[in-house]
C-alpha cells in the first residue's frame, strides 16, 4: 500500500510544469498553519503528526500507481520517471503531537525542493486537519470531565478509517479508552465496551439477557439498563449480578436526573461500588452540565468524531520562502486582499510568565542569528518546533503506540500550562495572543 | 487486509455472551434508518452501499486479527473458533445507492443469525453515515448549481481515506469530477485540477509561472489569477496563453462581483470561450447566490466533505425482529420513552401521484401476504429495497466503478421524481411524509 495517490491531481500537474520549466528543484519552505481558530475556540491541539510520519514512510509511487497516472494522462514521461524514483528527502519540523496552538502557529514546516514538498500538501493537510479537529474537541471534553474518564465511542458516526484516527486523537487529548478495536490494535490503546439494546432485545426478556451477559463476562461487566424501564432494569441488574456489578449504562433520557435516581437505587440495593456510565449525544457542554450528577464515566460518540461543531480546523499549507532564479532564498506571500499571507519562515516560541503560565505565541521571522539572539535573551520562551524528519529520515519515536503516549503527555502538560481561561467552554478569544516579530 | 476489526469491542463481547447462552443463532432482522433527517433537511441520499459490499467481502478474521483479540482478552476460545470460520452468510436488502430517503426509511435490512448480523453494526453505520452525509450535501449543491458542473476539491479538509469516499459520494450526487487521484483510480472517476498559489509564488513572477504552466500543460489549462491582483492576473493570463486559454480560477474575494469583472475583461480581450472557475468556501447557499454571476464551474471543498453542517446523518442499526426461544419470529422494540423504536420488519414503498411526483414513503409491517396484497393494489407504489447480498453472496453489480455510475443515475432519477420543494435550500420539513401502516 502506497499513500502517494491520496492527493490532489494539481500537485502532480504543478510538478510536471515545474520539472519542465526548471523550477522544480528550487529550495522551498512550506508552512502549515490556521488563519484563525474556529470561531469561539480558545486553543487548538496538534494531532496526526505520528500518522503523517507513518504515511510518509509509504509515500512512494509503485508500478500500479505509475501505470494509472500514465493511463489517466495526469503526467508526462519525464514526470513519471521522476515519480518512479521519488522518496521525500527533505526536512520537516513541527509542533510535537499533542501540543496546543493558536492562530498562525506554524504547526509544521516542510523544507526541500519544491518538487518534493508540493507533493505532500494534501496528505499533510488531510491528516492534520482531521486529527487536530477531533483532538481539539476531545480536549474540551476531557477538560469538562475533570477527573472522570471519557470513553471514545464514535466509530459508527464517521468514516471507518477516520474512526481509527479519531480514537487515536481522542486518547492524545485525554480520553481513557476507545470502543474501536482496530485503534486498540494499531496504537495499543485500551479498548472498552458495554452492551447494546440489541443484546437485550435478542433475549426473551431483560432478565435472560442480563443473566447471559453476567455468565459470559462476569459481574464486572457493564449492563445496559434503559431498554424498557430504567428502575426495573437496575433492580434486575443487581438481582442477577449481585452487588459487585461493575457498572450500569444509561443511554437515553435526562441523564442528570436519571443518574441521581439510579445512584440512590444502587446504593439502597447495597451496590455502592457499581458505577454509572452515561452515553447519548454527549458533548463538552453536556459533560459540564453533568458535573454535579453522580456519574462515573462518559461515553462520547458523534460530537467527538465530528469535532463538536468544527469537523475540520482550516489548516493550510503555504509556500513562505523559496530560492529565486538568482539562487537567493526569498520570502514569498500572496498579496490578494482577502487571503493575504505572511512570507518567510517563522520560528515559534511560547512565552511563559513568572506564574509558569503561557502568555503569548511569538512568531519570529528574520535572520537565524537574530532569532537565536532573541531566544537566548528570552529565558521564559519555549521553542515549539522539534525535528520530525531530517533529510528524509523519519524519527520513528513520534510514530506508533509510543508516539501516542508521548503525545498524550505532551498535551496534558501543554494544556496545564495555558492560562486558566483555556478551560472555559464558552466562546471567546484565543487564550494567548499571537505576536509576530520581524527581526530583519 | 481484513475489515473485521473496524468495529466496536462490544459487538464481540455480545457475540461471546450470545454464543455462551445459546442465543447467537437466533434468526434476527436488523434495520438501518434515521430517526429524523438533520434539522431543516428535506431529503436524504443513500450512499456508501457499494463501499459496504466491498468491505463486506473482506470481513473475515485472519490469524493476526485472532491473535490480537486473544492477547487483548476481548473474547474466549469458543468465540475465537467461531470467528476463525466466520463469513457473513446472511441476506441484505437495501435502498439502491443514490436513492433518496426520509425519516424512518429502512435504507438497509440485514437478516441472518444474531451472531452474523451483530458483527456488522459498526462497519455498516460508519460507511453509510459518512457517505450519505456527504451525498446529501452534494445533492443540495448540484441542485443549486443547476447545469453548471461542480468539482469535488475537499480532500485536504477530511481524513485521507474519508476523502476518497467523499469524492465517490459527491459524484453519486451529481458532481462532475474530483481532484482526488485515488478516488479517480479506485472508482474510475474523472479527475481535474487547476494550479495552486504555491506554483505562482515559486516563480520569480506571475508571468513566469503562467508561461511555465502553459508550456507544460497547454492553453486548455486553468490559470489561477488571484495571487496578487486579479485584473493584472487576467491580463497576464491572456497575454501568455492567448485567447484560447481554457479557464481562469478565482479563489478569494467577492466571487460574484469578481466573476462579472473578470468575464467583462476576458470578453474585452477576445477570450470569449475562456471559462471562469470559482472556489473558496462554497456551499449550496453560496452556489445559489452565484446563479446570476457569469461562473462556469464551482470547486467545492470543506463544506462538501463536512456534510455542509451535518457531517453524519444519524443512521442507527436496530434489531427489529428475532426468533424467540419457542422458535417463533417476533417483532422487538425498545420501550424506553426517549428513544423508542418500532418493531417488525418494514417494507418500504414510494407512492407517486398522477403527476409522477413522489407523494409519501409508506412503510408496511405485517404478514408478507398482506404486504404483497397492499402492493398489488397500489399501482403507484415503487418498492424501494433491492437485494444486495443473498445468503452471503454479494451482488457485485453494486460495487466498483459500475456501482458508482448506477448510483449516480439512480440519484438523478430519484431526485427528479421528488416534489418540487425538494430543491429548496431553506430549512423545512421532509419533502414527503413517512406513513407507517401495520397490516397485522
UniProtKB/TrEMBL annotation, chains A, B:
<comment type="similarity">
    <text>Belongs to the NAPRTase family.</text>
</comment>
<keyword id="KW-0436">Ligase</keyword>
<comment type="pathway">
    <text>Cofactor biosynthesis; NAD(+) biosynthesis; nicotinate D-ribonucleotide from nicotinate: step 1/1.</text>
</comment>
<keyword id="KW-0597">Phosphoprotein</keyword>
<dbReference type="InterPro" id="IPR040727">
    <property type="entry name" value="NAPRTase_N"/>
</dbReference>
<feature type="compositionally biased region" description="Basic and acidic residues">
    <location>
        <begin position="409"/>
        <end position="427"/>
    </location>
</feature>
<dbReference type="GO" id="GO:0004516">
    <property type="term" value="F:nicotinate phosphoribosyltransferase activity"/>
</dbReference>
<dbReference type="GO" id="GO:0016757">
    <property type="term" value="F:glycosyltransferase activity"/>
</dbReference>
<dbReference type="GO" id="GO:0034355">
    <property type="term" value="P:NAD+ biosynthetic process via the salvage pathway"/>
</dbReference>
<protein>
    <recommendedName>
        <fullName>Nicotinate phosphoribosyltransferase</fullName>
        <ecNumber>6.3.4.21</ecNumber>
    </recommendedName>
</protein>
<feature type="region of interest" description="Disordered">
    <location>
        <begin position="332"/>
        <end position="353"/>
    </location>
</feature>
<dbReference type="Pfam" id="PF17767">
    <property type="entry name" value="NAPRTase_N"/>
</dbReference>
<comment type="function">
    <text>Catalyzes the first step in the biosynthesis of NAD from nicotinic acid, the ATP-dependent synthesis of beta-nicotinate D-ribonucleotide from nicotinate and 5-phospho-D-ribose 1-phosphate.</text>
</comment>
<dbReference type="InterPro" id="IPR036068">
    <property type="entry name" value="Nicotinate_pribotase-like_C"/>
</dbReference>
<dbReference type="GO" id="GO:0005829">
    <property type="term" value="C:cytosol"/>
</dbReference>
<feature type="region of interest" description="Disordered">
    <location>
        <begin position="409"/>
        <end position="430"/>
    </location>
</feature>
<keyword id="KW-0328">Glycosyltransferase</keyword>
<dbReference type="InterPro" id="IPR006405">
    <property type="entry name" value="Nic_PRibTrfase_pncB"/>
</dbReference>
<keyword id="KW-0662">Pyridine nucleotide biosynthesis</keyword>
<feature type="domain" description="Nicotinate phosphoribosyltransferase N-terminal">
    <location>
        <begin position="5"/>
        <end position="129"/>
    </location>
</feature>
<dbReference type="InterPro" id="IPR007229">
    <property type="entry name" value="Nic_PRibTrfase-Fam"/>
</dbReference>
<dbReference type="InterPro" id="IPR013785">
    <property type="entry name" value="Aldolase_TIM"/>
</dbReference>
<keyword id="KW-0808">Transferase</keyword>
Amino acid at each position: 500500500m502506497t499513500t502517494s495517490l491520496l492527493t490532489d491531481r494539481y500537485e502532480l500537474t504543478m510538478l510536471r510544469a515545474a520539472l519542465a520549466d526548471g523550477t522544480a528543484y528550487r529550495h522551498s519552505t512550506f508552512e502549515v498553519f490556521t488563519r484563525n481558530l474556529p470561531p469561539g475556540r480558545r486553543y487548538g491541539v496538534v494531532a496526526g503528526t505520528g500518522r503523517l510520519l507513518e504515511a510518509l514512510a509509504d509515500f512512494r509511487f509503485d508500478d500500479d500507481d505509475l501505470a494509472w497516472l500514465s493511463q489517466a494522462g495526469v503526467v508526462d514521461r519525464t514526470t513519471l520517471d521522476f515519480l518512479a524514483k521519488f522518496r521525500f528527502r527533505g526536512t520537516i519540523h513541527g509542533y510535537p503531537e499533542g501540543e496546543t496552538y493558536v492562530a498562525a502557529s506554524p504547526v509544521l514546516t516542510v523544507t526541500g525542493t519544491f518538487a518534493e514538498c508540493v507533493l505532500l500538501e494534501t496528505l499533510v493537510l488531510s491528516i492534520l486537519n482531521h486529527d487536530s479537529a477531533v483532538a481539539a474537541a476531545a480536549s474540551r471534553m476531557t477538560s469538562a470531565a475533570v477527573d472522570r474518564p471519557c470513553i471514545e465511542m464514535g466509530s459508527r458516526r464517521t468514516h471507518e478509517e477516520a474512526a481509527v484516527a479519531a480514537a487515536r486523537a481522542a486518547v492524545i487529548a485525554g480520553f481513557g479508552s476507545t470502543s474501536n478495536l482496530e485503534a486498540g490494535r494499531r496504537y495499543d490503546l485500551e479498548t472498552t465496551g458495554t452492551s447494546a439494546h440489541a443484546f437485550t432485545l435478542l433475549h426473551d426478556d431483560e432478565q435472560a439477557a442480563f443473566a447471559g451477559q453476567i455468565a459470559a463476562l462476569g459481574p464486572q461487566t457493564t449492563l445496559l439498563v434503559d431498554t424498557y424501564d430504567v428502575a426495573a432494569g437496575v433492580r434486575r441488574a443487581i438481582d442477577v449480578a449481585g452487588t459487585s456489578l461493575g457498572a450500569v449504562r444509561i443511554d437515553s433520557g435526562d441523564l442528570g436526573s436519571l443518574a441521581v435516581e439510579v445512584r440512590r437505587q444502587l446504593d439502597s440495593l447495597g451496590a455502592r461500588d457499581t458505577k454509572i456510565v452515561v452515553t447519548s449525544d454527549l458533548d463538552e457542554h453536556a459533560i459540564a452540565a453533568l458535573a454535579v450528577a453522580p456519574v462515573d464515566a462518559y461515553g462520547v460518540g458523534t460530537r467527538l468524531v465530528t469535532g463538536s461543531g468544527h469537523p475540520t480546523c482550516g489548516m493550510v499549507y503555504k509556500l513562505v520562502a523559496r530560492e529565486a532564479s538568482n539562487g537567493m532564498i526569498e520570502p514569498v506571500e500572496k498579496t490578494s486582499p482577502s487571503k493575504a499571507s505572511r512570507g518567510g519562515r517563522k520560528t515559534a516560541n511560547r512565552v511563559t510568565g513568572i506564574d509558569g503560565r503561557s502568555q503569548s505565541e511569538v512568531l519570529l521571522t528574520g535572520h537565524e542569528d537574530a532569532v537565536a539572539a532573541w531566544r537566548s535573551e528570552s529565558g521564559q520562551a519555549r521553542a515549539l518546533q522539534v525535528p520530525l524528519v531530517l533529510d528524509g529520515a523519519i524519527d520513528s519515536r513520534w510514530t506508533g503506540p509510543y508516539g501516542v503516549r508521548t503525545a498524550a503527555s505532551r498535551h496534558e502538560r501543554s494544556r496545564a500550562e495555558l492560562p486558566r481561561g483555556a478551560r472555559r467552554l464558552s466562546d471567546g478569544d484565543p487564550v494567548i495572543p499571537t505576536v509576530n516579530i520581524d527581526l530583519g
